[in-house]
Amino acid sequence: MDWNIARKKNLAVSLLLACLLVFTAACGSNNGNTNSNSKQQNESAPEEAASQDGESEKMKVVTSFYPLYYLASEIGGVHVDTVNLIPAGVEPHDWTPRSGDLSTASKAKLLLYHGVGLESWMDSFLKGLSSDSSLMAREMSEGITLIAGDEDGAAAEEEHDDHDHADEHDHGHAEEGHEHSHDTDPHTWVSPKSLLIMADNVKKALIEADPAHAAQFEQNYEVLNGELAALDERYMTELSAASNKNIVVSHQAFGYLARDYGLKQVSIMGLSADAEPRAQDLLKIAKFVKENGVKYIFFEELISDDLAKTLANEADVDTLVLNPLEGLTPAQQKSGDDLMSLLELNLQNLIQALQ
Q1: Strand blocks (E) in the chain
Q2: Does the domain made of 55-231 have the CATH classification 3.30.70.100?
Q3: Residue 250 — φ and ψ, nearest 5°?
Q4: Where are the domains of the chain?
Q5: Domain 243-354: top CATH class
Q6: 43 Cβ partners below 8 Å, 6+ apart?
Q7: pLDDT tens across 144-177, in order?
Q8: Helix (H/G/I), strand (E/B), else coil: 277
Q9: The overall pTM is greater than 0.70
């Protein structure tokens, strides 16, 4: 009798150990497939369900630079697989596509680009697509009132007419002669007001390319539009209360921000981040800084801050980051920053500088 009891106990322990081993193995398998990005985790379940229901795979969307990548990812949600051409930490003005980028775009359904001369490589890029590509290319700056800059950084507004793309080829090739002047400021996205227009353009392009998921795109767009509108309201309220309206920046990339929120931009370099100022220009700006009570010289993280620091030393002021939002640095990407968090940081730094 004692032997039987002991045998039953050993059997129970063995069964318990076997169950624990199965449970541990299952947990280990799940942990190995866990994505560190919580948003992607939340999106995986609906996407798996969609695949089981026989729905098509995610639409492939290629974007030319980071702000469009963010907008397309947020509005497209689980139904879009978005690839950004320009990698983290690369200044868009310095980037040119490679053969691998052509291959990526040729396999996509939709290409979203900014236009206004930002992507000077776009025309030749579209002509280089594979002959069997069905890529649709759409310009996302449509509807924004543009700023034309002269050599001194003065700005004049001109209407960015909506171009009729009905005659474009299947690949989205622009019409003959459709080019933007290099004197036009392309940096529209630094202003939340411009991003509101761009977000609407992205939504319309996604619906055009994938009408089956129009309702989901509309829903995601409404959420993002609400966030951008709230941020736009904060920019208007808080910057209008600033005692100083002058911002001195390293690169003439903040004209739309200045125009939309009542600021005056004074830049060390011109529209091109590679432009080198003359010695007399630096002295003139230093004089402006001293006479107008400017406390900070703004610099950017994707280009050298040497000139900004030189001017700050000359004028005896400090430096501060004002992000042109053209792309994330590897550190920002790793820390989870995105377009909205950088817009928020820009506002905080502007308030600090303009007090």
Answers
A1: 59-63, 80-84, 110-113, 136-139, 146-149, 155-158, 184-185, 246-249, 264-267, 296-299, 318-321
A2: no
A3: -75, -30
A4: 55-231, 243-354
A5: alpha beta
A6: 77, 78
A7: 999 986 544 433 333 444 444 433 434 443 333 3
A8: coil
A9: yes
